[in-house]
Write a structure and sequence with these properties.
mainly alpha, DNA polymerase, domain 1, 14 helices, hpI Integrase, Chain A
Length: 291
């Protein structure tokens, strides 16, 4: 009989092959399931460890695993529970369990947080320091410029291959979530940097690039630009969308540029824009000025 350990591996494999989830997402799902089901640790402790699909056994494991995540932020707990529910639903559909155990677990409501982003002034400061600093490498510049200038996800940039770059058309063919391709325009000022980078690449555009390295590059140059708030590379992608929206771009065009499957995922930027308008109103409207 198939074990629980093998079931987890097959579930992750299906997410990869059928739904096209990225390696980064698969690692996160694997870690979440391991934390709640405690699969890998028992594999290491016993060569013959064989976790069964007995429903009482699984529920007991989950109850123990949920105590390990009780102190996490609600959003983090919800993500892990959502992953667990998806796995349990898959197990039921595959016939491993007689009942759909996913129905026994619920996520809690959390306030919707607006995406973190850079202001236009902060982006200009970042670009300025990258241009003027003699120790800024062309590769570091291009990494940050492409995320902001093309609205790329970190995973999309890391996976970018040489055949995906079309210099004459000034476009990138990007493999997004669900293994869906989309074309994005390369801003003209970046074309020279792109050509230089391609001369040093063999298969992927940025060899040995990792998520941690991108974080490190952004952190270094943001501090040099005088940006003191907490930063992350995804904020550059949020800034790309936010600045386009504020400048009057159509929401559906932004949806296509970001590679969002549904418009709902893009609509959060309208809330962000409204927040900006409210701040402007508070600062400049005559009724808010002291006499």
């Amino acid at each position: 009989m198939e074990t629980l350990q093998l079931g987890v591996l097959k579930y992750l494999q299906e997410l990869s092959e059928v739904k096209g989830y990225s390696e980064q997402t698969l690692r996160a799902y694997g870690n979440d399931l391991n934390q709640i089901l405690i699969v890998r640790s028992e594999e290491k402790n016993s060569k013959n460890a064989s976790l069964s699909w007995d429903e009482k056994h699984i529920l007991s494991r989950i109850r123990n695993g949920l105590t390990q995540i009780k102190d996490l932020k609600a959003s983090s707990r919800n993500r892990k529970i959502a992953c667990l529910k998806s796995f349990l639903k898959w197990a039921y559909e595959k016939g491993h369990t007689k009942k759909d155990l996913s129905l026994q677990f619920k996520t809690t409501k959390v306030p919707q947080t607006l995406p973190r982003y850079f202001t236009v002034d902060e982006i200009l400061s970042l670009i300025n320091v990258l241009k003027k600093s003699p120790d800024s490498s062309p590769e570091e510049k291009l990494i940050l410029y492409l995320i902001y200038g093309c609205g790329l996800r970190v995973s999309e940039l890391i996976q970018l291959k040489i055949p995906d770059v079309h210099i004459k058309r000034a476009t990138l063919s990007v493999m997004g979530k669900g293994k869906k391709n989309r074309l994005v325009s390369i801003p003209k000022p970046l074309l020279k940097l792109v050509k230089v980078q391609l001369d040093h690449a063999s298969e992927v555009v940025f060899p040995d690039l990792t998520q941690r390295k991108i974080y490190s590059i952004l952190e270094k140059w943001a501090r040099r630009a005088g940006i003191q708030k907490k930063v992350n590379p995804h904020a550059l992608r949020h800034s790309f969308a936010t600045h386009l929206l504020v400048d009057g771009a159509d929401l559906r065009i932004i949806q296509e540029l970001l590679g969002h499957e549904s418009l709902a995922a893009t609509q959060k930027y309208t809330h962000l824009d409204i927040k900006n308008l409210a701040k402007t109103l508070e600062t400049h409207h005559p009724l808010n000025k002291k006499k």
